[in-house]
Amino acid sequence: MTKFNLNAAAIAILAASVFAVSCKKDQQQQAPAEKPVGANLIVPANGATLSGVLGTGKTVRDTIHLTGGTYLLQGLVYVDTLDVIKIDAGTTIKGIVGAPGGTLVVTRGAKIEANGTATQPIVFTSNSGSPASGQIGGLVILGRAKTNQTNPLIEGIGGTPPADTHYGGTQVADNSGILKYVRIQYAGYELSTDNELNGLTLGGVGSGTTIDFVEVYKAADDGIEFFGGDVNASHLVVVNPLDDGLDFDNGYTGRIQYALVVEDSTRADKSTSNGIESDNNSVGSQALPITKPLIANLTIIGLPSQALATKTNFLPSGTGKYGVVAHWRRSSQFQVYNSVFLGFERGFLLDNTVPAGGTTVDTQEKYRDGVSIIKNNLVHAFTTPFASNPAYPFTATKAYPAAADNNSGFANALNANAAIRLVNPFNRGIAGFYRPGNDPLNPSPAATGGLTTGLPAGIVGTSFRGAVSADAAADWITGWTVLGY
């Protein structure tokens, strides 16, 4: 296998550029300067192992072009500021199992152009002959959009990395590139206790970035975690995460439309596995911007039985447990429309307490009334579809779950799918198991009832609820994803 360390000037395309790069590096050590506009093209050979900081130095703007085939990542591999990594459709990038496992980190100011297709997705996976959750660190993208923290470092890396791992800034429309038809498998490397990478980790990523048709399969932490930023994402699939399907923190304010989260019924995390977990920040302060995702057409499929949903002794830790379908806590806010949730002990939980010390925040309800909205959704729970802590009634006078908002809550239903009637949401061997059933004598309420108007800017109205319609021809999930156990 070719060893390919992109820090070496020898990998430049033109031999003449090697000497120039070397000279520029010497100058950079004396007087740091921003990279020039001129670009240097680097094309690693098929089978190459990428390591360290990619590119030829701080003073050269590089494009690293992976032209198909298979490449390896050894440890934490960084795309340096203002550089671009371009990945062609059909490319497979395998992380070498280790401490840490192979991980690609796109630093603040750099770009990734991963433009796959439905028939040739780009795949990040483990190089192990027996791939398993958490063997690699997955994909990390850091941007310059707003957060409610001061120049934060992304979690899950630690130490003194050779490239900058801060994220955030003031550029709302910052562009970190494109992810389209990309699969990330067996990611979520745990650096230390409660300090993990996710399948896809996004820090301060701006709205100029495109994230569309992305699947995360068997992550060892969260499927996708958004740390601040305002990137919009669509056509997301998260399958078998150990912890939360989607996680929002540090002032994330983007839009998510058309997404499917399918829980792993064989394991759960010690920190409690939720469909959604959302915090304004780790201490629950009301720092701005407030975490407030706008979500539409999301389907979250939990567990097929109450026994599994309440189990607390998952091996090997013996401490794993499931939580709620959507845990909104620590001063975070939300708007959720046209979505379907089923298979958890509890549904929507508005939890405005900070666990450390149990401090209650927002006692004046300053950030409650008229702020968060859940409208035209179907919510199943084995016990309670809607709850709040501190106790806060869901009434039609508040912008919370209410009959006036056309939210159907199905509680104490031991058959999680009895009222929602998806095709067969707990049988992944059936094509379109996540779609609404279209039995004309007993149609699924998910096939209708969606809002088509009156939605926030950028959200498309649909007559159906959930990630897809009942029409098999409109199924955007089949073909490029992994949905098995």
Automatic annotation (TrEMBL):
Keywords: Signal. The keyword DNA-binding does not apply. The keyword Signal applies. It comes from the Bacteria. Residues 1-20 form the signal peptide. InterPro entries: Pectin_lyase_fold/virulence (IPR011050). PANTHER family: LIPL48, SECRETED PROTEIN. This is T9SS C-terminal target domain-containing protein. It comes from Chitinophaga nivalis.
